[in-house]
Design brief:
Blueprint (H helix, E strand, L loop, with lengths): L83 H25 L14 H26 L3 H5 L2 E5 L8 H17 L2 H10 L11 H6 L1 E5 L2
Antiparallel strand pairs: 1-2
Helix pairs in contact: 1-2, 2-4, 4-5
Length: 225
């Protein structure tokens, strides 16, 4: 075995062997990555976490408190929310208006439930009157709300139903959902109790003062002037 260095050009000189090659000037290993351009940071040109925040502050989805790319407070730009007391009064006006029509139609079609003898009350007539009430209340509320956002009671008290998302007048489908949740239990089972619970919810709900029917339909009530 010879210890003589291999002849030049053989490919086995000490300068070609990375394990015997002397380190480059300035220290470091031949396997060290070159220093990043632009000064410091990771291999992709600076620390990715050192980038300045977007203008206006906040996270990647918009400024702090701005609600992201889909906007902030859904009530921004809407009129003030309707006082719960005025909502109740408007509902009472609507109940009286439709209730008179229900009573007249019940007499016309002989489905009234009044009888001095409670043992002779006809269950079929009671169901018929409830059905008439449900159809009229739901139809009245749905049609008027989808047209202008106002029933007669709301118009008199300067209130309006609006979509929570954009303040627009609710669609027919949204108005129907709202009316069914409000009036169907009222007509068939627990009129007073359900009205108090569903409508009275707005007294305690925050931040949008919604009744249960508003929550189901994603609506709010606002003032009109």
């Amino acid at each position: 075995m010879t210890t003589e260095p291999p002849p030049p050009g053989s490919g086995n000189s000490p300068d070609d062997d990375p394990f015997r090659k002397p380190p480059p000037s300035g220290g470091g290993s031949p396997y060290d990555p070159p220093p990043p351009s632009g000064g410091g940071g990771g291999p992709y040109g600076g620390n990715p976490y050192d980038n300045p925040p977007p203008p206006g502050g906040g996270g990647p989805y918009g400024p702090a408190g701005g609600g992201g790319p889909y906007g902030g407070d859904p009530l921004a730009g809407m009129p003030p929310l309707a006082p719960s007391g005025k909502r109740v009064l408007a509902r009472i006006i609507d109940m009286i208006i439709v209730g008179v029509v229900v009573w007249l139609l019940s007499l016309l079609f002989s489905v009234g439930t009044w009888d001095s003898d409670v043992d002779n009350i006809d269950a079929g007539k009671s169901f018929g009157q409830s059905l008439i009430a449900a159809i009229l209340y739901i139809g009245y509320d749905t049609i008027l709300t989808a047209r202008t956002g106002q029933t007669v009671g709301k118009r008199l008290l300067h209130l309006r139903v609006a979509d929570l998302s954009n303040g627009a007048t609710p669609s027919m489908q949204t108005s129907l959902i709202r009316a069914v949740v409000l009036w169907l239990p009222f007509a068939f089972c627990c009129a007073c109790i359900w009205t108090i619970i569903c409508g009275g919810w707005s007294f305690f709900d925050r931040p949008y003062k919604q009744g249960l029917h508003d929550k189901a339909a994603k609506t709010v009530e606002v003032t009109t002037g």
